[in-house]
Structures are given as C-alpha cells and as structure tokens.
Amino acid sequence: MTNERKIKILTIIGARPQIIKAAALSRAIKNKFKHKIQEVIVHTGQHYDENMSQVFFDELDIPNPDYNLNTGSGSHGKQTASMIEGIEDILLKEKPNCIVLYGDTNSTLAGAIAASKIHVPVIHIEAGLRSFNKSMPEEINRIMCDHVSALLFCPTKSGYDNLLKEGFKENNRPPYTFDNPKIYHCGDVMYDNSIYFSTNAEQKTTVLKDNNLQQSKFVLATIHRNNNTDYPLRLNAIFSALNSISSENKITIILPLHPRTAKLLSKNLSAELYKIIQTNQYLKIVTPVSFLEMIALERNSSMIITDSGGVQKEAFFFKKPCIILRSETEWIELVKCGSAIIADADETKITEAYNYFSAAKKLEFPDLFGDGKAAEFICGEILTYIK
Ligand code: UD1
Ligand code: UDP
Question: Are the C-beta atoms of 344 and 327 separated by less than 8 Å?
C-alpha cells in the first residue's frame, strides 16, 4: 500500500447529463487514482425516473451514490433551497477536501452555494460556457458557480475566453481559492465518454432494431428546454416542423421525449397538431433511452435536431449535422465550423436547415473537444492543487 496522501472529493449529481458526465471522472479515479482520491457521490434526486437516473448507473459503471437527497421536482427556489440544505449537512459531516460540480443545473448551483459559504473549495467541470441570455435558468447557475470556484475546467477555448472577459486571470499562482482561481482549457469529459462508450453501442443495444431504424435513414430529435416546452407558440412551431419534415420527406424522426416535454404536449400543442403527430407514422415519439441507446441512435442517424447542450455536442462528435432549436448556443464552435445551424423555434428556419443539410456535400468536424482524457487531466490537477 502507498503512504501517499488520499484526498476526499464530494461529487454532486442530479440531472441526467450530470450523471453521464460523472461517469468519466469516476472511471478515471477507478483506473488511475484509486489510491489517491476517494469519491463520495451525492445524488440530489433532481431527476428520479428510472430512465432519467438509475439506467445510467446500471449501464455506465458509476458507483451508486453514497447519499440521495430525493429532492424531486419543484419551483427553482424550492428545489434549490432543499438541495442546499441537504448538501450543507453532508459537507459538514464528510469534510471533503473539495466539491466537484458539473454543468449548469439547479443541482450545480445548490452545490456551489452550500460549499462556498462554508469554504469548501469548488471544482467546476464545464466552466466558462455562456449563452449571454440570462432568461435561461442555466445561465444564472453557471455564472454563479464559476464565480465561487477555485479550479475551473473549460471544455472549449471559447469557454476559457469567456472567463478571461469576466476578469478571471491566466497568471494566478497557487494556492488556488475562490479569490485566486485557476482556469483551464482542458477538453470535454463528454467527449471522453463518447469515445469510451461508443465501441459496439449498436451491438450492445436493440434500439435500432426495436424501432425499425436503418443506418442514415432516420433523424434523431430531442426537446426539453423550458423555453420551448412551456411556450405554446414555440412548441407548436417545433412540432409542426418535425411533422412536416418527416411526412413530406417520408423520413422517420425518432424523438426520445424528456418527461418535462411529455407532460406538456397535450396542454401546449393545439388539439389539431396533437392529433396529427399521433397519427404520423414517420414521427416516432418514445420514452427516454439509455446512454448506449442514445449513442447508437446518434451514430446511425442522418441528422440531429435538438435543443439539448449535450446532444448538440454528441452530434458533432459523431460527425452529424445538427439543427439547434434555440436562439443561441454556448457551443458556438459547432455553428462557426458550419456543422450546426441555429434555427430557434422557427418552423421555416428548421425546415430550411433540414433541406440545407440534406443537400450539403461535406461538413467539417475539426478536433475541438480534447483528446478523450479530460477526466484524467482534471483528477491530476485536483490532486496537485487541492490540499
Ligand atoms: C434540468 C436542467 C437543465 C438540463 C436538464 C437535463 C435546471 C434548471 N435545468 O431541466 O439545465 O438541461 O435537466 O435533462 O436544473 N421530470 C420527471 N421525471 C424526472 C425528472 C423530471 O417527470 O425524473 C419532470 C417533472 O415534471 C419536472 C420537469 O420534468 O417538473 C422538469 O424537471 P427539472 O429537473 O426541474 O428540469 P429539466 O427540464 O429536467
Ligand atoms: N440522453 C440519453 N437519453 C435520452 C436523451 C439524452 O442518454 O433519451 C443523453 C445524451 O446522449 C447526452 C445527455 O443525455 O449525453 C444530454 O442530456 P439532456 O439533453 O437531458 O441535457 P443537456 O445536455 O441539455 O443539459
């Protein structure tokens, strides 16, 4: 056994993409740092359906959470407040060397507030991303988390540059704290995962066969942003576009539907459109799928239409054109290199983007997200700088 110091990190997960992102760090710890890093995992319970949470633990070899706060759904204030209270108690009990937070959800914000107030160093993975649209709950969460973090790991150069513009410095020296933070451009743990889990995703799942899907003969779509689901005009425009693209081109669109959207379809779509989409044989609305199933769908699709941050990037990792159902994106590199188009919730723009990509000859997918070893790098830096 080694006499080396072992540090304790406390990881907060809660929403689907965080559980997936956490798999990369847990894997790096298991493979390379198990004698040096002890990970305590706290699930806030923000997502709780079997297919929004447990499926990822079963499939991605993530250790079961040491704690589950069972927070569940609620208004922003109620949900976040309940998580802060629960996380604070655990921090006081576990006394970790730092807290590790992913992305920009209410679980991220709760972890940032709970930890920073009692001076537990915050490590933010997926730092620096900005939509420059503060009406998005995620924009508030990510800005607040970045500004109380000690180590900030940006997946992209543009994320790193955003931090510089907000006053973060490149030349701080250790010890790093929230008043003297260290910023990195280190690649994306989602890219690590996409490489790691994509081997044989088709053979390990039956999603293509079950849905009668053939390679490059279908489009994958996801919709869950509150700005789309909660506004009838926007939701109708999106579904109207998906309906006409699929029926006019006789191409299947498969839509694994987030529970938020599923619950609002009958309320926010017009009765007429709601009925039409249910009888459109080319529009397959299914329940959320596992990560390996999602990779199989992404890799075999001809195009991806989404408002998800993670799915936009995975489209790029698997070299698929992407139509973004938002008015802006944090992943501006995808749009700059021409492999993604921002179409918002605008029926005409969505249809035009579909037609453009259907006819487009060759798209560019340069290496922008690291070398697939971001999680190992992050573990090494945490070990070096967190005492
Ligand atoms: C959250 C994140 C968002 C992220 C998304 C990933 C915030 C503010 N938003 O959005 O950034 O992109 O997760 O998927 O943190 N629900 C269920 N079962 C579940 C989970 C949710 O039915 O297991 C339904 C509930 O009706 C709930 C609604 O979905 O009210 C929204 O869930 P919530 O976690 O508040 O936000 P998301 O839209 O999932
Ligand atoms: N995902 C999944 N099953 C689904 C839809 C998405 O496994 O049915 C994965 C997807 O591959 C990506 C992550 O969930 O890794 C993205 O999460 P989501 O779209 O919920 O949130 P966002 O990335 O927008 O925060």
Answer: yes
Closest-approaching ligand to the CA atom of 106: 1
3-state secondary structure of 170: coil
Residue 177 zone, left/alpha/beta (φ > 0; ψ -120 to 50; rest) = beta
Assigned token pair, 355: 């037609």
Ligand nearest to the CA of 290: 2
Pick the CATH number of 7-188+370-385 from 3.40.50.300, 3.30.1330.10, 3.40.50.2000, 3.40.1160.10: 3.40.50.2000
In this structure, the strands spanning 303-306 and 218-222 are: parallel
Burial class (CB in 10 A: 0-12, 13-18, 19+), 257: middle
Protein residue whose Cα sits closest to atom 24 of ligand 2? 308
pTM over 0.85: yes
Full strand arrangement of the beta sheet holding 218-222: 283-286, 252-256, 218-222, 303-306, 322-324, 340-342
What residues are paired with 10 via a beta bridge?
A: 40, 99
Query: Is pLDDT of 270 > 80?
Result: yes
The tens digit of pLDDT for each residue in 284-307 reads: 999 999 999 999 999 999 999 999
pLDDT tens-place string over residues 24-76: 999 999 999 999 999 999 999 999 999 999 999 999 999 999 999 999 999 99
185 included as an active-site residue? no
The pLDDT tens digits of the residues spanning 175-204 come to 999 999 999 999 999 999 999 999 889 999
Q: Which residue among 19, 105, 311 has the greatest number of ligand 2 atoms within 8 angstroms of its CB, and so is best to mutate?
A: 311
Query: What is d(CA 100, CA 320) in angstroms, rounded to the nearest whole number?
Result: 31
